[in-house]
Design goal:
Elements (H helix, E strand, L loop, with lengths): L9 E6 L3 H12 L5 E7 L3 E3 L4 H6 L4 H4 E3 H8 L2 E4 L2 E5 L4 E4 L5 E2 L2 E4 L4 E2 L7 H4 L1 E2 L3 H12 L5 E6 L3 H16 L4 E6 L10 H13 L2 E4 L4 E5 L2 E4 L4 E3 L2 E4 L3 E2 L2 H4 L10 E3 L10 E3 L4 E3 L8 H20 L15 E5 L1 E8 L2 E5 H16 L20 H5 L14 H8 L12 E5 L2 E11 L5 H18 L3 E12 L3 H22 L2 E10 L3 E10 L14 E4 L5 H9 L5 H11 L4 H6 L5 E4 L4 H13 L2 E4 L10 H6 L7 H6 L8 H4 L10 E5 L3 H10 L5 E7 L5 E3 L1
Parallel strand pairs: 1-2, 1-9, 2-5, 9-21, 11-18, 12-13, 12-18, 13-14, 20-22, 28-29, 33-36
Antiparallel strand pairs: 3-4, 6-7, 7-8, 10-19, 15-16, 16-17, 23-24, 24-25, 26-27, 27-30, 28-30, 31-34, 31-35, 32-34, 33-35
Helix pairs in contact: 1-4, 1-10, 14-15, 16-17
Length: about 700
């Protein structure tokens, strides 16, 4: 991470990645308020854009086109992204409760979590149905359904505009797939009665043309695996059942002191809740001064007002601005095919031209979130020292293990120590009959979230203990926080300590103390100890014929380098962080009979395998295709993305030709997997590892060709 220009003194927390918040973050990236630390809490790395959902369901847009990439957006805005759902808000204590996360403190917060559906209250719906909101999970379930074959029966509960759009989109998609489709749109009253008579007629005609059956006065009473049961006993057979009715606020929000009797957050014309430090926008808010329907057009127009008012609240400078919603708005409704209907003030138009207009509006909205070309590094002064430009490099230094000193420099430094230079992952201390191992490691932050970095750093440091077959015992932390006020520093240390303690406690170790200071950027490290009940597993025991087992996929260096440059997909970054934070205690236990073992970190798979071969006097043969890779890593490698430590790692293997898949052997790993040399029973061991949810694989074997690394 790059040095921040000003110390942090206030925490701004966005809860939910709705359209308003996405637009505010975009504006924040272009004009941040100095001294404000920004956090976004959202269940995942993306937020689906509702305006393009019918087009995606119909097959006109890909999933990537539908999603706002929040990872990239937060990177641009300098915000941390917590990828977990909020579960509560304590407005008095100014804390946001987050699933699986320490409570997140705020000085000012804004809520934009949208709404959910009351459909799960219908008996059987939670098990057999799929609500249309949240949009992301619904889109994923529909994509899986489209992969099927044969006749398709679909039921859509809720005859509003949203239900009609979905029914037409599904009918078009299934017809395009060549499948016989029976689509039924169900409404308790009369479908589309919220529209004027002309618009109603146009939409009903469009539904009829797509062979969608509209059932008015149809009240569902129960959902089964293949049917919707109606009041009166009739059954509507269906294999895919969804609901676009019964919109309601999220339960955790409705239970908060901020909510009204319906569960929404009432806000004034400044978008402030009854608690002045909390704002709310989008469908989860109720505008008391000017009530309006739940529609995305209002959320979009709230963004500039919210941006200005948050800055005023955090700085104490300037008056807050009112939001004045328009009385009526243009409704653009997708008709399944590339056709749309427009309605405003009773005037109705429809046809392909309206679709092209809607498509232009939606694409223009999504283009706002496209990542710009990465900024060039500032020009170096002249005159300057020889070699400065080469040392600085053409891109910012990576975080994590990508910022390590190369293996050659490390070997030179260790050569001045008396005796043989240490080669194993941890030092072995013997006191009487007790054998203890000790190691230290720290990471330069790759992401701004101290909780995620604490988890990854703890797993990374424990890797040396697990690699030697020891049981983790104790840890001391070493933390450098970015410059910030005492209050914010206390919040950060609390989060880091809690997150690290959870990882260490699970491993059987205790966090017993440490040291902290303020500096230019976030750095987290640990000194860890472990006890060996048996002889430690070292790097010098590999034997010809041993199978090479790797317990995590490769690619974290490439993915983090791409993330810094705005080139990685948010979903791929999220998956990589999850892999890096995965503890290796269970894997180490199953590999306790290994002849030799190490963890794969900064010097890449090839570098750490070479260390085993050198210590054991053996060679190795790697099977490239069997090496597991992180999601998105190979594509980025093909695009030429490399971590800053890659050139030094590759320099030790000049005989190996460059190739995207081969180059990942030299990719520095953070929180990487264990690399074990296992004799008999290796296949059984891998089966046991996979049964524990560990992505383990046999990736090659040890040979008797000392010092030779072959790749097949």
């Amino acid at each position: 991470m790059q040095d921040q220009p000003h110390p942090f003194s206030r925490d701004l927390v966005f809860v939910g990645g709705g359209h308003t918040h996405a637009l505010v973050l975009r504006s924040w990236a272009m004009n941040p308020l100095p001294g404000v630390r920004v956090t976004l809490i959202n269940p995942g790395p993306v937020a689906a854009y509702s305006g393009m959902l019918p087009g995606h369901i119909a097959g006109h847009y890909t999933r990537d086109q539908l999603d706002i990439d929040l990872v990239r957006l937060c990177r641009r805005a300098g915000a941390r992204l917590i990828m977990a759902p909020a579960t509560g808000i304590d407005a008095e204590a100014r804390l946001i409760k987050v699933e699986g996360w320490p409570d997140v403190a705020y000085d000012v917060a804004s809520v934009d979590v949208g709404i959910t559906s009351a459909m799960p209250d219908l008996p059987g719906f939670s098990k057999h149905g799929m609500p249309a909101k949240p949009l992301g999970p619904f889109a994923s379930r529909w994509a899986a359904f489209r992969k099927g074959s044969g006749p398709a029966r679909v039921a859509v509960i809720g005859g509003g505009v949203a239900g009609a759009e979905l029914a037409m989109a599904m009918a078009h998609a299934l017809r395009t797939d060549g499948r016989m489709a029976e689509i039924t749109l169900l409404d308790r009253g009369r479908a589309l009665d919220m529209l004027g008579p002309v618009a109603q007629t146009r939409l009903r005609d469009a539904l009829h043309d797509l062979r969608v059956t509209v059932r008015d006065n149809a009240t569902p009473t129960r959902i089964t695996a293949h049917a919707v049961e109606l009041q009166g006993g009739e059954k509507i057979e269906a294999d895919f059942i969804t609901g676009a009715a019964g919109a309601r606020p999220h339960a955790w929000l409705a239970q908060s002191t901020l909510a009204d009797e319906r569960g929404f957050i009432p806000v004034d014309s400044r978008l402030r809740s009854r608690v002045g430090t909390v704002y709310a926008v989008g469908d989860c808010a109720h505008m008391t001064d000017a009530p309006r329907p739940k529609a995305g057009v209002f959320a979009v127009r709230q963004a500039p007002v919210l941006f200005d008012n948050l800055r005023a609240a955090l700085s104490g400078a300037g008056a807050q601005k009112p939001y004045r919603p328009q009385r009526d708005y243009l409704k653009l409704i997708s008709l399944g095919e590339k056709s749309a209907m427009a309605e405003r003030n009773g005037h109705v138009l429809s046809g392909p031209l309206l679709w092209r207009w809607k498509d232009w509006i939606d694409r223009r909205f999504m283009q706002k979130f496209e990542t710009p070309d990465p900024a060039l590094p500032p020009a170096l002064p002249w005159p300057r020292a020889a070699g400065l430009s080469e040392t600085v490099g053409a891109k910012p230094m990576c975080g994590g293990c990508g910022s390590k000193v190369g293996a050659g420099a490390l070997r030179d430094a260790l050569s001045v120590l008396p005796g043989d230079a240490p080669t194993d992952d941890a030092a072995i201390l013997t006191t009487g009959d007790a054998r203890q191992v000790i190691s230290t490691d720290h990471l330069r932050a790759m992401v701004t979230d101290p909780v995620m970095m604490a988890r990854i750093a703890a797993v990374h440091a424990l890797g040396d203990i697990w690699a030697m077959g020891a049981t983790p015992q104790a840890a001391l932390d070493s933390i450098i926080l970015p410059r910030q006020s005492p209050d914010l520093a206390a919040r950060s240390l609390r989060e880091i300590t809690q997150a690290a303690s959870e990882i260490l406690d699970e491993a059987g170790a205790r966090l017993v103390g440490g040291h902290s200071t303020l500096g230019p950027e976030l750095t987290i490290g640990f000194t860890v100890t472990g006890l060996c009940e048996r002889a430690p597993i070292t790097q010098d025991g590999a034997q010809p014929g041993d199978a090479l087992i790797l317990t995590k996929p490769l690619g974290s260096g490439v993915l983090m380098a791409a993330d810094m440059a705005g080139q990685a997909r948010g979903a791929d970054v999220a998956a990589a962080l999850s892999v890096m934070a995965q503890p290796q205690g269970a894997a180490a236990e199953l590999l306790k009979e290994a002849h030799a073992m190490t963890d794969v970190t900064g010097f890449g798979l090839a570098g750490h395998l070479q260390a085993i071969c050198a210590a054991s006097g053996v060679g190795a043969d790697l099977d490239l295709k069997s090496i597991p890779l992180m999601q998105g890593a190979l594509e980025l490698a093909r695009d030429g993305v490399r971590s800053t430590l890659y050139p030094q790692n590759k320099a030790a293997f000049p005989h190996i030709p460059e190739d995207p898949r081969t180059d990942l052997l030299f990719d520095p790993q953070t929180g990487g997997g264990l690399l074990a040399c296992v004799g008999k029973g290796a296949k059984t061991c891998v089966k046991k590892l996979r049964a524990q949810g560990i992505e383990a694989a046999i990736i090659g074997q040890i040979t008797d060709r000392a010092g030779v690394l072959d790749i097949s």
